[in-house]
Amino acid sequence: MNTPSARETRHLLSRAAAGVRSSLLPLHAARGRLRYLSPFPRRFTGAYGSYAEAYAVARRHGLAGYDHDEIAHVAFEKMCEVALWDYPILFWLQKLSNEVLLLVDAGGHMGTKYRAFRKLLPAVNELDWTVYDLPAIVRAGRRRAEQDGLKSLHFVEHLEDAGAPDLFLGSGLLQYLDVTLADLLGRLPMLPRHLLLNKVALRKGEIVVTLERIGKARVPYQIRNEAAFLGEVQGLGYDLVDRWTIPSLSHVIDTHPELGASESAGFYFRLP
After folding, report:
1. pLDDT tens, position by position, for the chain (272 residues)?
2. 259 lies in a domain?
3. Rounded to whole angstroms, how far apart are CA atoms 49 and 70?
4. Which residues of 170-186 are buried (b: 16+ CB within 10 A; e: fewer)?
5. 4 occurs within a structural domain
6. Please, which residues have CB within 8 angstroms of residue 112's CB and are 6 or more apart in sequence?
7. Strand 102-106 to strand 167-171: parallel, antiparallel, or no bridges (unpaired)?
8. Fewer CB within 10 Å, N- or C-terminus of the chain?
9. What's the maximum distance between 2 C-alpha atoms anywhere in the chain?
10. Range of the domain at 50
11. CATH code at 221?
């Protein structure tokens, strides 16, 4: 009788393990669904085909979306710290500092990235930094900026009021955006030459929108199809200059583990 080689043995064990994982998948999925009924809150719940569908479900459970005074200050201090995934953005801001006068920080909360970056990159203090966000966030951001004397930090509720930025920053924006990026950029008088996008949630399959628990609210969280997202941006005329992955921000939906983990990615696009 022929004894299998070590390589063949590893291959057989790998196939067996894959078979066990596959057979357990329905069990994991059922357990995930039961978490919906748990009295203990989960971070990500549900899987929906559109932002509107997810938002409608969130409304049935209480606060829906991010536009609430009650959650404007949630994790503010933490968001003002420089995280590991911020360093590619800092790198490109430094490289582009001589080309940028007006920066629009879309979904920039209460100016958290401005506050974090100015400590490490003095050039940030020379920029006209305009945050575009939801009304409740803008109100809180303006009050806090006035209290702290941050005169270069401005806020707008409508992107049309932001002017014509040289650089568009969207850090942690796209998963919460209820329109396409192309539609959002179309509100500006012209496309910004530089586009820095960070923490973009992506997957290989169809778009999935889940609900993320933030404070007392449930907020639609969109995981985009990677190919469609790249095609959308490049269809606007942008060239991809840089891309990075953020493994620590890869997420599995607690109630739908069978959908697999998302990828969190960052990008620098530039108009030729």
Report:
1. 555 666 665 665 567 555 545 555 554 444 444 444 444 458 999 999 999 999 999 999 888 887 888 777 787 889 989 999 999 999 999 999 999 999 999 999 999 999 999 989 999 988 999 999 999 999 999 999 999 999 999 999 999 999 999 999 999 999 999 999 999 999 999 999 999 999 999 999 999 999 999 888 899 999 999 999 999 999 999 999 999 999 999 999 999 999 999 999 999 999 99
2. yes
3. 28
4. bbbbbbbbeeebeebbe
5. no
6. 76, 79, 80
7. parallel
8. N
9. 82
10. 45-270
11. 3.40.50.150
Q: How far is CA 255 from CA 38, 42, 45, 208, in A?
A: 11, 9, 5, 13
Place of tokens 């959002």: 184
Give the whole-angstrom CA distance, residue 146 versus residue 153: 9
Residues 211-241 as b/e (b if ≥16 CB within 10 A, e otherwise) read: bbbbeebbbbbbbbbbeebbebbeeeebeee
Provide the number of structural domains found in the chain: 1
Its pTM stands at 0.83
Any domain includes 25: no
Question: Is-contact 92 196, C-beta < 8 A?
Answer: yes
> How far apart (Å, rounded) are the C-alpha atoms in residues 229 and 208?
13
**Is 21 within a domain?**
no
